C-alpha cells in the first residue's frame, strides 16, 4: 500500500480500504468480508461525509463490483498484524510504492 506521510488517520483508513478493494478487484479475488478498526470509516460508508465523499463513492463503487462484501468492525487490539505491518512500512519510509505480500514477514509470526 502507498504510504501517506501527510494525512490524517481517517484519510489513511479510507485510502487503505480503497487500495485493498482495488487490489482484490484487479486480482479477481472474491472478497467475502472487509474489516476496519475505524468505526468512523464504517459509519461514513453508510451515511457519507461531505469532506470524504469522493473516496467514499470510489469505495462503494469497488464494493459493488466485488458483489458487496460485508463490512465489519475489528477492534484495534485484535488487529495486531496490521498494526505491525503499518509501523514497519512507516519505519522503512515506503511512501512511494505498493507492496503486496504473499506470505507474512517473520516479524509478525508471533502475532498470528
UniProtKB/TrEMBL annotation:
Q: Which terms does the record give in the GO molecular function aspect?
A: nucleic acid binding; RNA-DNA hybrid ribonuclease activity
Q: Which domain of life is it from?
A: Eukaryota
Q: Which residue ranges does the record assign to the RNase H type-1 domain? A: 6-88
State the protein's name: RNase H type-1 domain-containing protein
- State the organism named in the record: Nicotiana attenuata (Coyote tobacco)
